[in-house]
Amino acid sequence: MNAFDLAVTVALGSTLATILLNRQVTVAQGAAALVSLVLLQSPPLGPRSASEAYGAW
Fold it and tell me: What does the alpha-carbon distance between residue 14 and residue 18 come to, in Å, rounded to a whole number?
């Protein structure tokens, strides 16, 4: 786990707590925030390295 993973984990927990405890935040807003954090955490869909991108060149 690197520093970014830790920060995102804390942000996910804080966002979930805000959704549950704050009546001014709607479920849709909370879901959008959680989805945004998860998408920021996930790796890109492209090749992971140049060697994988170009195969056996």
Answer: 6
Label residue 11 left, alpha or beta by phi (over 0 means left) and psi (-120 to 50 means alpha). Answer: alpha
pLDDT digits (tens, 9 = 90+) for 31-56: 999 998 888 777 665 555 555 555 55
- C-alpha to C-alpha distance for 17 and 43, rounded to whole angstroms: 25
Look at residue 38 and give its three-state secondary structure.
Answer: helix
Q: How confident is the model at residue 7 (pLDDT cuts 50, 70, 90)?
A: confident
